[in-house]
Design brief:
With about 325 residues, this protein is of the alpha/beta class. It has a single domain, classed as Rossmann fold (3-Layer(aba) Sandwich), CATH 3.40.50.720. Helices cover about 45% and strands about 20% of the residues. The chain has helices at about 20-25, 45-55, 70-80, 95-110, 135-160, 185-205, 225-230, 240-250, 265-275, 275-285, 295-300, 300-310; strands at about 1-5, 10-15, 30, 35-40, 60-65, 85-90, 115-120, 165-170, 210-220, 220, 230-235, 240, 255-260, 290. An eight-stranded mixed β-sheet has the order 2-13-9-8-7-4-5-6, with helices on both faces. It has a two-stranded antiparallel ribbon with strand order 1-3. Strands 10-12 form a two-stranded parallel ribbon. The chain is globular and about 55 Å long.
Length: about 325
């Protein structure tokens, strides 16, 4: 089914998933929405907007989140706005392998085989390196990195059997340039990029592979004033609308990896080429600094709420 989208400004496409796609999609204005998409972290922010926009494109959407109430709000929002849409909510902790396994069975029963898997579930807790509890750091890695591992390992076999599918990781510009007070978050996103690159190389070993991968690396997204007021940056945060449009365009035109906005990719290249003292001086000018919220704010932070709900021991 033909759908329409416009190339999103500020997207920095790096490589297409194939030479054929590179030629065919060079000036592509229209795309085909797949039948079924599973998106994690749909209870708020980018995940919620991705679910809404893909439903508008006619896809069947499985909304996955550990927070049942917020996830059901997402589904209610979509079904109210889009009459006849097929959207279902699944309460799942992506860091728990048993729950992920059960999810895959349920989604296929309800919506059919998954065409696109979008690993978006993310927690981000600001902390000093020595000033955070062990379980918070472990849970950040479990949700942001291992959760994506478990989701891919569960949904990939079906895609390989059909030799069709698309796996997407919502990473971060912090995977290219780490920030102070985000050590656990940055580690999880650097790891996510490495995992996705290794996965792509493994898939490329199959001569007839038709499973695509995409890594999306946005800067901070303005999901709420409560969130952005603790970010002090010379670069403006992304609007949620722009981040959503750029992400969907990159996915549906089969980009392998891209940053939002494009300047992030090139500044990272420059950072890697320059001597470290010059690189540090540039970062001192074009800085992004994380401000630790007051304790009373930290206690009600959505990421900490999710961590408390999904603390999994390994």
């Amino acid at each position: 089914m033909a759908r329409h989208t416009s190339p999103a400004a500020g997207v920095s496409p790096r490589r297409k998933n194939s030479k054929a796609n590179n030629k065919a999609n060079k000036d592509q204005k229209s795309v085909d929405a797949p039948d079924t998409i599973t998106i994690t972290g749909t209870g708020r922010g980018l995940g919620r907007e991705l679910a809404l926009k893909f439903a508008l494109l006619g896809a069947k959407v499985a909304c996955v989140d550990a927070d049942q109430n917020s996830n059901e709000e997402t589904v209610k929002l979509i079904t109210t706005k889009i009459q006849g849409s097929t959207v279902k909510a699944y309460t799942v902790n992506v860091a728990a392998t048993a729950e992920v396994t059960a999810l895959a069975v349920k989604v296929e029963q309800d919506l059919g085989p998954v065409d696109i898997l979008i690993n978006n579930a993310t927690v981000m807790v600001a902390h000093t390196f020595l000033g955070e509890q062990d379980h918070t750091i472990a849970s950040t890695l479990n949700i942001n990195l291992l959760g994506s591992f478990w989701m891919i390992r569960t949904f990939l076999p079906g895609m390989m059997k059909r030799n069709s599918g698309h796996i997407v990781a919502i990473s971060s510009a912090s995977s290219l340039c780490s920030l102070s007070k985000l050590s656990a978050y940055s580690a999880s996103k650097w790891g996510l990029n490495g995992m996705m690159e290794s996965l792509r190389e493994e898939l490329r070993e199959h001569s007839n592979n038709k499973i695509n991968t995409t890594v999306v690396m946005p800067i901070f997204i303005n999901t709420s004033a409560d969130y952005t007021k603790y970010i002090n940056s010379r670069m403006p945060v992304l609007s949620l609308k722009h981040a959503t449009e750029a992400t969907i365009h990159g996915i549906l035109t089969d980009e392998v990896e891209f940053t939002i906005p494009r300047v992030v990719y090139f500044t990272n290249l420059l950072k890697r080429l320059l001597p470290i003292n010059i690189s540090d001086s540039i970062k001192n000018i074009f800085y992004t600094k994380i401000i630790l919220p007051p304790q009373e704010i930290q206690s009600i932070d959505p990421s900490r709420t999710i961590i408390n709900k999904t603390n999994v021991a390994y």
